[in-house]
Amino acid sequence: MATSVVETINLRKTYMLGKVPVDALRGVDLKVEKGDFLAILGPSGSGKSTLLNMIGALDKPTEGKVFIDGVDVSTLNDNELADLRLEIGLYSNSSTSFHGSLREEMLNWQWLYLA
Ligand SMILES: Nc1ncnc2c1ncn2[C@@H]1O[C@H](COP(=O)(O)OP(=O)(O)O)[C@@H](O)[C@H]1O
Ligand SMILES: [Mg+2]
User: Fold this and answer.
1) Ligand 1 pocket member 47 (CB < 6 A)
2) Cβ(42) – ligand 1 distance below 6 Å
């Protein structure tokens, strides 16, 4: 069987908000195969950006694994991570978008591109 482009296993991310733990991801198992086009939908605060940041190797999970093309991201050193980030296109316009109307809300998307 071909290697998945992305695989996450029991991915967990807990942020600390001061002394209060916030579970952003609670065990995400995801497989993305070559050629897949995937949309991740969910209400604000449900963990979409957190998940993309893990897959894009921009942030580290509290627990669990991310594999990109079969490579365990947690085994990569800083140089290898930098190379991987060049391979993965993560585009976000969320910081420039406004909230309010539906049209503005629809502009608040993020793209993750793996080729
Ligand atoms: N840097 C952070 N520090 C603390 N809490 C965070 C941080 N980033 C996200 N969160 C929290 O994690 C949860 C998921 O957020 P996020 O991944 O941005 O969701 P979405 O992209 O689906 O709106 C929310 O409760 C959010 O408040
Ligand atoms: Mg988001």
Assistant:
1) yes
2) yes
**Residues 54, 112: Cα–Cα separation, whole Å:** 11
Q: Is the CB of 109 under 6 A from ligand 1?
A: no
Q: From ligand 1's centre to the CA of 70, what distance in Å?
A: 27
Q: Using one digit for the tens of pLDDT, what is the confidence trace for 61-81? A: 999 999 999 999 999 999 999
Cβ-based neighbour number of residue 74 at 10 Å? 13
Question: What atom of ligand 1 comes closest to residue 94's alpha carbon?
Answer: 21
Q: Are strands 63-68 and 71-72 parallel, antiparallel or unpaired?
A: antiparallel
Nearest to residue 23, comparing CAs of 3, 43, 46, 4? 46
pTM reported for the whole predicted model:
0.86
Report the alpha-carbon distance of residue 22 to residue 30 in Å, rounded. 21
